[in-house]
Amino acid sequence: MTIFSITILIAGLLYVASVIFPCFKKSPDVKKRGTYILALVGFIFHTVAMLVQYAPDMQSPVGNSYGLILSIAWIIALLQIAIPMFIKNGFFTMFPVAILTLLPQACPMFSQVMGGSIKSTPSFAVVHGLLVALSYGALAVSAIFGGVYLKQKNSLRKKFHSSKEIPMPSLEMLEKGISVFIATSATTMFASITAGIITASTLSHTPELLLKFTLGGAIFALQLTLCFTALMGYLRGAKLAKASITLFIFAIIMLIPIELRMAI
After folding, report:
1. What is the sign of the dihedral through the CA atoms of 68, 70, 72 and 75?
2. In terms of pTM, does the model score above 0.70?
3. What pLDDT, in 10s, does the model give residues 231-242?
């Protein structure tokens, strides 16, 4: 194993530890502090791994499928590490980051990338990849907000107020967060498609490229629809939260056939 693969493995295990740490019977303050520290240290290892792999040769981390997935995970982690600095009401789960970080390591198709072989990427393709990563990252955060919204609403419905429960953000703030991150995701996806079209003009029109733009366009259409319905007030509350989670799951499923075969 390379230094990169060992470091990213440690990062993933720390993310997992931050997810399961609250399951132990500790005080709310200890749970919150321990979860955050584990996630923060995992994020540091994640950052170091990215720098070790890509910084020496000034390579783009989105020049291949595995790098793109790690970039998306890094963006999600960064947002969640930053959120508690501005919102003092709890900490959001690192579960999506743990999945994105660890699952590819068990997949044989990433073995070449894990060994350090990275293909070069044109400049517009780099911009395209970065914007795609930002779009999926924002979509993931909207889904996290949606999950927290549903949990908070369920607690309020049951009128469950335990002194050991970690305080959560208000439903109004969570709903606003869902809408903001969905809008961010749609905007960056539109920009990524524009950069992708410019890049595609220099490539041969293969079936893989057609699949990439077809599925990418479908995801963008759903993002735009969800953004519009939320903005106009047609979709709110629990329905908006469930829709954001469903869209993220759909987008991740679509990401697999789009990005694992090719990365433009």
Report:
1. negative
2. no
3. 777 888 888 899
